[in-house]
Amino acid sequence: MASRTQTDTDDFDTDADDFGGDLAEDVVLEVRNANVSFDMDRGESRVLRDVNLEVRRGEVLGVVGESGSGKSMLASAMLDAVVSPGQLDGEVIFHPEDGDPVDVVSLSDRELTELRWNEISFVIQAAQSAFNPTMTVGAHFEETLRAHGSDVEEGLANARELLEDLYLPAGQVLRSHPHELSGGQKQRALIALSLILEPSVLVMDEPTAALDLLMQRSIISLLADLKEKYDLTLVFVTHDLPLVADIADRLAVMYAFELAEVGPTDAIVEDPAHPYTRALLKAVPNVADREIDIAGIPGSSPDPVHVPEGCSYHPRCPLADEECRRDDPAFRSVGDDHEATCFHWEDAADEIPFDTEGHDE
To answer: Which site from 59, 79, 84, 162 is most exposed, i.e. has the minimal number of CB atoms within 10 Å?
Structure first.
């Protein structure tokens, strides 16, 4: 895998002027005003709400939040892979290193097939569901290579290198059926498969969710190595904030199907501005403390059909007042490259204190 395969972006019917010319050169993927909705008998269910987010070339962006916060839907939206009857509105703009910007949402099926795997690849949450149980792992690699018109012999050589980079016995894994592999082996094989066409961006949806703690940490370490070797941009979606904090350059915190806080990992972990982010970190137990007292977040996440008016977090927030119940706060700067959607962020540290080791203050 000495050189990266370049997709011919001229095939995409796109006008760079449509996206403006002032975008910073380090942005590889933009999500603009993204909404995802499902029509239900009891009303419209909006599972992504007015999300605007940039992914910077070469970074690891962690997307975190409780289960049901919209993280997985954001990951699917980045590849225009929202499952029908879901409806994605907004823009997802890919910026290749060479060529004009590509509006992913406007691409034809053929163009989407060309973009996916070649430029942006996706690792789904359950590795077992990604594999056909009747096929060997090697057959999955061959099928993917043929589907994209790639040289199979050369591609399988790359597959062996990727598997070995992930500390897997390449020959044995390629000959195996998925059920013959452990959960950690399947997950690593799926990561290798997602990289076989040398994409520049890898979007990962809860890639360690079904694994034990030791394997989770191992995969985080392996991902850091892969990122450097293959010059990857990673979007790592997870409910486990401490886990992704070990690898992420920036964090995007989601609540109620929208972004609550975005900023450098160190800033968010050490001094989060949004009450929800502080509550998430306060709920993390300190395993070194024999008297663990986990401070859960009162209440529950909102129903996507009935998201509260005003700030969506106000029913659970100790800082909420009439303004929060009435108005929806916009993003505001709370530090260097750090933004949060909260009217009272300056009071959050006093109202929701915690120390960085996970102990209550």
So the answer is: 84
Q: Is 262 helix (H, G, I), strand (E, B) or coil?
A: strand
Q: What is the pLDDT of residues 282-296, one digit of tens each?
A: 887 665 554 555 667
Helices (H), 168-301: 170-175, 183-194, 213-230, 241-245, 265-270, 275-282
- Summarize pLDDT for 306-334 with one digit per residue, the tens: 899 999 999 999 999 999 999 999 999 99
Measured distance CA(124)–CA(134) in Å, rounded: 19
DSSP string, 306-361: SPPSSSTTGGG-TT--HHHHH--PPPEEEETTEEE--TTHHHHHHHS---TTS---
Domain boundaries, the chain: 24-248, 267-351
Q: How close are the terminal C-alpha atoms of the chain, in Å?
A: 50
Instruction: Answer yes or no: are the C-beta atoms of 258 and 71 closer than 8 Å.
Output: no
